[in-house]
Design brief:
With 172 residues, the protein is mainly α. The protein has six helices and two strands, in the order ααβααααβ. α2 packs antiparallel against α5, α3 runs parallel beside α5 and α3 packs antiparallel against α6.
Length: 172
């Protein structure tokens, strides 16, 4: 497994300097806010995995941890090799692909009783706080240090990846 990880990092590393690709999904936090505002009227839910309120809470956790620090970090070696290479690939593609039911390492369990409105409020609050934040940002638990524009991209790609499971339609 370790050899595979090192080979993956070596193969992906050249992409890290390729420059940022156009974001797929949400181009800005304003785009995400518009999508969030439409959720209740669209009777939205997720196709699988966590419920929609928990997905929104998970995205809010990630944004908050970028300012407050992640509860558990991957090793420095991982962050500087595999994590940095993965970030480089995601950034070049403008899209992220990761397990959509995997919690942030060390994060408290998602609240299964959270309502959609509460989930939306948590995510909106985290986005607003991040945009207003002028202090230092904490290293990402897997990718390592990211500046504010990179973290903005990461958060938007993260949300868009989870959004791929959002379904809208008439109430059941």
């Amino acid at each position: 497994m370790q050899r595979r990880t090192v080979l993956l990092a070596a193969a992906a590393a050249p992409l890290a300097g390729c420059g940022a690709g156009a974001l797929q999904g949400f181009a800005s936090f304003d785009d995400a806010r518009r999508a969030l505002a439409a959720l209740p009227a669209q009777h939205a839910k997720t196709a699988s995995g966590w419920g929609l309120p928990q997905v929104l809470q998970h995205a809010a956790q990630s944004i908050d941890y970028s300012m407050d620090g992640y509860p558990q970090m991957k090793s420095g070696l991982f962050r500087s090799t595999v994590g940095a290479a993965a970030w480089g690939v995601f950034d070049a593609r403008g899209a992220m692909r990761h397990s959509l039911d995997e919690p942030i390492p060390g994060a408290p369990a998602l609240d299964a009783a959270l309502t959609l409105e509460q989930g939306i409020a948590k995510l909106l609050s985290a986005m607003q706080r991040f945009e207003a934040h002028t202090g230092a940002l904490q290293p990402h638990f897997a990718y390592g240090p990211l500046d504010k524009p990179a973290y903005t991209r990461a958060h938007l790609m993260h949300l868009a990846n989870h959004w791929s499971l959002v379904q809208t339609g008439a109430p059941a």
